[in-house]
Amino acid sequence: IRLPVSGKRWFGQEKGQDDDGAAYRALVDQCVLACSSRSVHLILDLHHYRAPKDLDVAFWKDAAIRYKDNPAVLFGLLNEPHNIRWEVWRNGGEVTDKKRVTDAANENAEVLTTFTTVGMQGLIDAVRETGAKNIVLVGGLDWAYDLSGVLKGFGCSDPTGNGIIYDTHVYPWKSKWQESFLDVAAIHPVLLGEVGCDIARMSFIPPERHEDPYTWAPDMLACIQKHRLHWTAWSFHPGATPRILASNKDFAPTPWWGAFVRAALRGATWQSDKLR
């Protein structure tokens, strides 16, 4: 289970919170207990973007102490890094407000600002300084899609923990599967932390980049199975896109994605060598 969490809510900094985040932290605790008591791993996904900020470091120092004795909890360090150089992604440094063109340059309306980041290695180090050995998940660039930098000398280091899983988010408008994540998956553990498709085209996707989910989903699942990749389907929420559920009343799956996910979880297999 991949559980998106907010650092601001964790510390009680959002509007309407008057308990320093105690109720929110207790809710996350309930999710952790519900999963770990059923022998299910839970990924604590810090659902922020671009590059780690000071609040993200503070969150992981606090959350790592809280869950360091629970090996069922994996730490997803930052949801979707983007618009930075590989050197800054790993080692930290100044993040500028200059946009870089990617396959999904307009995926999020986030306003770009200039700040200093500790980088992904800095987040790993902050977690390990607490004594937590939990597995950490590290998302690549291009909104966590591109992992190619790992094989170009920018892999992270984890000498005192239980290891790193590299995280890629794969959607139909993303191309170059081989170099973006499959080459890395041949050497390192890789999770498709977000993967999914939708019948409706989102506004930022050019028409020529919107693929029919009934062709994309079986090819994607065939790729996952052939390369023995880990994956968490996005998203178990009837209002999020791409969505697994058609409704939260009867948990009916969407025919274009949820039905494929359910079939895969029940043991269905697909055969295809078609990459994107």
Please sum up the structure shown.
The protein is of the alpha/beta class. Helices cover 30% and strands 16% of the residues.
Kindly describe this structure.
- This protein is α/β, with parallel strands linked by helices and 276 residues long.
- The chain has 9 helices and 11 strands.
- The strands form 3 sheets. A 7-stranded parallel sheet has the order 1-2-4-8-9-10-11. The chain has a two-stranded parallel sheet with strand order 3-5. A two-stranded antiparallel sheet has the order 6-7.
- Helix 8 links the parallel strand 10 and strand 11 (230-233).
- Helix 3 (54-67) packs parallel to helix 5 (119-128).
- The longest helix is centred in the first third of the chain and has 15 residues, at 22-36.
- The two termini are 27 Å apart.
- The model has no long low-confidence stretch (mean pLDDT 94).
Biggest sheet strand line-up: 1-2-4-8-9-10-11
Mean pLDDT over all positions:
94
Overall geometry: globular
End-to-end Cα distance: 27 Å
Strand content: 15-25%
Reported for the largest beta sheet, the result is: 7 strands, parallel
Note the total helix count: 9
Question: What is the SS-derived class?
Answer: alpha/beta
Radius of gyration: 18 Å
Low-confidence stretches: none
